[in-house]
Amino acid sequence: MDHRSLAGIANALVAPGKGILAADESTRTIGSRFAALRIENTEENRRDYRVMLFTTDRIEDYISGVILYDETLRQNDADGTPIVELLSERGIASGIKVDSGAEPLAGAPGEVVTEGLDGLRQRLSEYRDIGARFAKWRAVIAIDGVDIPSQYCIDTNAHALARYAALAQEAGLVPIVEPEVMLDGVHDIDRCGEVTEIALRAVFEQLCEQRIALDATLLKASMVVSGRDTADRAGANEVALKTVERLSRVVPAELPGIAFLSGGQSDEESTANLNAIVLRGRKVGAPWELSFSFARGLQSAPLAVWAGCDANIEDAQRAFQNRLFLTGAARRGEYGGS
């Protein structure tokens, strides 16, 4: 795929008013969420749950793309329609998670590096043939005191993110790079901001070093927030101020957009913070679209309602519609609370 087409896909994924649904949980991760609701973790249940989300009425009004897991990308719905086609019929692009998860980083106790570069060129080509139009790779950056993250951990993960991005663009897929700064910990918002800026600086240095076309790339970013276990956590306005300030220092203007992850925040917190970030970005003239790529922030409510029971599908879809409506309002800077 030529560069212009890739840039067009990247811009479509962050189209005004829309965002990305992250439905790329691994079999083990979705299994743990199913277990909490006593849902059997079978391939059929995983398929039916995701199809329920993807066939919700008017999902295309809020969602431009869906990040899928390998299994889901290859699945058909109960009627035999490929899930990629199911989404395409609604004008929604299919994406694919391509990393194989985080593993301990040698020489850096307590830190991890994301694996999955081996054989990635071949996998990306296959995913493109199946119907994927973009891909995602997540790096994990923990905060623990003054020594974690180490610069070694940040640089190693930044290098892997850029190698993945180069291979994705070579294969004709828009890369989403995700250096997630974890919410866990007792750090304050300023420490989160410091780590976020250092990590993003390293990522964009590597992206440029490895000749990535930034106008055909998206960033999936953490919000700059207080650690989960901090007693006095910053509110939405401070989150917005610190997030836009830090990103403005290091994210190049040619990047089409930034899709924020919910990162373990509650539904209400992530939505309120997104709304404040959008308003702050608008006030200071941020050069990129400020969007979302939520997983639990969109899925937790409908999953709890569905609970593995077909009789609950319509109610679950209504719960999903409600989360889409509220998140879409935040995407436009019009969220007033639930």
Note the main attributes of this structure.
single chain; 338 residues; alpha/beta; 8-stranded parallel beta barrel; two-stranded antiparallel ribbon; 10 strands; 15% strand
The number of helical elements comes to 12
Structural class: alpha/beta
Instruction: Give helix % range.
Output: 40-55%
The end-to-end span amounts to 42 Å
What shape does the CA trace take? globular
Mean pLDDT: 96
List low-confidence stretches. Answer: none
Largest sheet: 8 strands, parallel, barrel
- β-sheet strand percentage: 15-25%
Task: Work out the radius of gyration.
Answer: 19 Å
Strand and helix order: HEHHEHHEEEHEHEHEHEHEHH
Number of strands: 10
Strand order of the largest sheet: 1-2-3-6-7-8-9-10
Q: Could you characterize the architecture of this molecule?
A:
47% of the residues lie in helices and 15% in strands. The protein is built from twelve helices and ten strands. It has helices spanning 3-13, 27-36, 43-54, 70-73, 83-88, 120-130, 151-170, 189-209, 236-250, 267-284, 296-306, 313-331, and strands at 19-23, 63-68, 93-97, 102-104, 112-114, 134-141, 174-181, 218-221, 257-260, 289-294. The strands form two sheets. It has an eight-stranded parallel barrel, surrounded by seven helices. Strands 4-5 form a two-stranded antiparallel ribbon. The termini are far apart.
Outline of this structure?
By secondary structure, the protein is α/β, with parallel strands linked by helices. It has helices at residues 3-13, 27-36, 43-54, 70-73, 83-88, 120-130, 151-170, 189-209, 236-250, 267-284, 296-306, 313-331; strands at 19-23, 63-68, 93-97, 102-104, 112-114, 134-141, 174-181, 218-221, 257-260, 289-294. The strands form 2 sheets. Strands 1-2-3-6-7-8-9-10 form an 8-stranded parallel beta barrel, surrounded by 7 helices.
